[in-house]
Write a structure and sequence with these properties.
By secondary structure, the chain is mainly beta. It contains 1 helix and 16 strands.
């Protein structure tokens, strides 16, 4: 079904992809500013979510699947409640226009947003998803961002690109650098 999802969904350049805890697949298309929900088993389109101001290129789902977090191209991270489309979270990562990538902790309590700054440094911020309070701001690494993740047990953060770095959840200094 996975090969047919994009071919049959009418998507123009799917950018962000995330599975929900229900097994359904959510796909963000920056070109159309839409988020599409597909049946994860059959690839059938279930619905298209309401259009957003900026659908975002990168997406992550809350641990219960109720909120879709969007790393938007205006330097902002937004959370959209899937049941009614309401914006439940909105925080600016950077004043610069640029794509923000996102990841959610396994327990759903922390949200990670990462962006490359104009001077090629990377900036990451960890927020409390319930309050929007910044828990950490991390600086380190240079160049574009190829990927990011939060460890499901320790919440260790890893950000990859031309160099790859990790941070402990309570530290703002890179603890490992990979070449």
């Amino acid at each position: 079904a996975s090969a047919g999802v994009f071919a049959s969904g009418g998507l123009s350049g799917p950018d962000g992809i995330a599975y929900g805890p229900d097994g359904n697949l959510y796909v963000a298309s920056y070109a159309s500013s839409q988020i599409h929900k597909f049946n994860g088993a059959t690839g059938a389109l279930i619905k298209t979510l309401p259009e957003l101001r900026d659908a975002g290129t990168f997406i992550a789902l809350s641990s219960d699947g109720s909120v879709l977090y969007l790393g938007c191209n205006d330097g902002v991270v937004r959370g959209q409640r899937l049941a009614d489309g309401a914006i439940t979270f909105e925080q600016r990562l950077t004043e610069n226009l640029g794509t923000v990538r996102v990841a959610v902790s396994a327990d759903g309590r922390r949200l990670l947003g990462v962006a490359s700054l104009p001077d090629a440094r990377r900036m990451a911020r960890v927020w409390d998803t319930a309050t929007g309070v910044t828990l950490q701001t991390l600086m380190g690494g240079t160049g574009g961002i190829a990927g990011l993740a939060m460890h499901p047990l320790t919440d260790e953060v890893i950000i990859s690109g031309p160099d790859t770095r990790t941070w402990a959840s309570a530290s703002s200094m890179g603890i490992r650098a990979f070449q």
